[in-house]
Amino acid sequence: MTPKVAVVGATGNVGREMLSILAERGFPARDVTAVASERSIGVEVSYGEDDVLRVEDLDRFDFSGIDIALFSPGARVSAVHAPRAVEDGAIVIDNTSHFRMEPDVPLVVPEVNPQAIGQYKKRGIIANPNCSTIQMVVALKPLHDLARVKRVVVATYQSVSGAGRDAMDELFNQTRSIYVNDPIAKEQFTKQIAFNCIPHIDVFMEDGSTKEEWKMAVETRKILDPEIAVQATCVRVPVFIGHAEAVTVEFERPITVANARAALKEAPGISVVDHRVDEGYVTPQEAAGEDAVFVSRIRRDSTVRNGLSLWVVADNLRKGAALNAVQIAEILIRDHLRAGGNGDARVRARGDAH
Ligand SMILES: NC(=O)c1ccc[n+]([C@@H]2O[C@H](COP(=O)([O-])OP(=O)(O)OC[C@H]3O[C@@H](n4cnc5c(N)ncnc54)[C@H](OP(=O)(O)O)[C@@H]3O)[C@@H](O)[C@H]2O)c1
Q1: Residues pairing with 296 in the sheet
Q2: What is the residue-wise DSSP string for 4-55?
Q3: Alpha carbon of 113 to those of 11, 80, 145, 223, 312: distances in Å?
Q4: What is the DSSP letter of 210?
Q5: What mean pLDDT is predicted for residues 276-296?
Q6: pLDDT digits (tens, 9 = 90+) for 222-247
């Protein structure tokens, strides 16, 4: 099957990365259409090295004939237009938070729960998890298989690109303003982000945690194991691309550093870079533009019986968003759509949506 693909949110951080990854991986698309808001009608976006696509307006876009729609236009926009795309016959892979916790929408990280993709038939929608959840569960999966994860305490160091392109501009402009002694403008973040760290991502919840922290807990349970306890502190840092996480894990069963390292080395999507010397670990700046989830600083947590601490880094726009979505699309085609062909898949998605 060679699908027709629409990338919705194509002018944004995630959408642009999706177009670049589709081209890079030689995704077997018959046709790719770039879609964004009315503001971007006619804007040109790159599709690979040589091709340029002209952006179409989502409000007026007809999804009939589109097989797979990769959505990243923000939660409120996906809420309205993803069901419309399904109604028109497309299967939606959505990067926003809107559908993630709905019980009949699979939430998928291909290295962790690829089997869940088959549940797309229920609503015609597959959700892509939050960027900080994705890289953490990729690293936890082989360790969970080895010794069963009981509890995770994580502190994140999240780059500004995770908040969209305007947030990247804000870091750049504030940094510049500081150097030239201009007043600092603050719109995307609640406090100055240049030369600072902000322990606040997304809105506050009633229990004092933020929604980003809540997402890491509930999404990890939905993807990996409903029994895992997660305590997260999510922090925005003045880095353009690449999220880092200090992850401390308590296991049910004994686990050694050597066993953990061996399991992580074998696991798909992970690169272990862990030398206990200067430069023997990966930082966000080095992970930017890469596909792997990097694991460094593997060591014992001697404060509990079975504990390990890790440093986990990934490109939030690639594995944390666009790459994960494209990998889902590849599995969807390979394992679910190929035999039945395009028409069959679309009828199934639409038929089960009601
Ligand atoms: N960045 C990450 O690391 C990351 C990771 C996982 C998930 N996500 C999620 O992905 C979504 C997009 O993130 P982003 O970083 O790409 O944001 P972004 O850089 O701000 O881009 C937003 C995109 O959405 C489009 N859009 C906004 N309002 C629209 C509307 N009414 N109709 C059609 N298109 C509209 C924009 O089009 P215009 O240019 O026309 O305004 C643009 O293409 C968010 O929900 C975010 O939470 C992001």
Answers
A1: 311
A2: EEEEETTTSHHHHHHHHHHHHTT---SEEEEEE-GGGTT-EEEETTTEEEE-
A3: 29, 27, 13, 6, 19
A4: B
A5: 98
A6: 999 999 999 999 999 999 999 999 99
Mean pLDDT, residues 263-291: 98
Amino acid (1-letter code) at residue 267:
A
Provide the token pair at 93: 């892979």
Give the β-pairing of 307-314 and 243-251. antiparallel
Task: Give the H/E segment covering residue 22.
Answer: helix 13-24
Supply the residue whose CA is at minimum distance from atom 21 of ligand 1.
Answer: 12
Q: Is 336 a catalytic residue?
A: no
**Edge-to-edge strands, sheet with 4-8:** 56-57, 31-36, 4-8, 68-71, 91-94, 125-127
The encoded tokens of residue 228 equal 């895992």
Cα of 55 vs centre of ligand 1, distance in Å, is 14
Q: Which atom of ligand 1 is nearest to the CA of 317?
A: 3
**Which of 13, 97, 98 should be mutated for ligand 1, with most atoms under 8 A from CB?**
13
- In the structure, what pLDDT confidence band is assigned to residue 339 with cuts at 50, 70 and 90? low
d(CA 188, CA 128): 23
Ligand 1 centroid to 49 CA: how many Å? 22
DSSP string, 295-316: EEEEEE-TTSSSEEEEEEEE-T
Residue whose C-alpha is closest to residue 154's, from 132, 129, 185, 138: 132
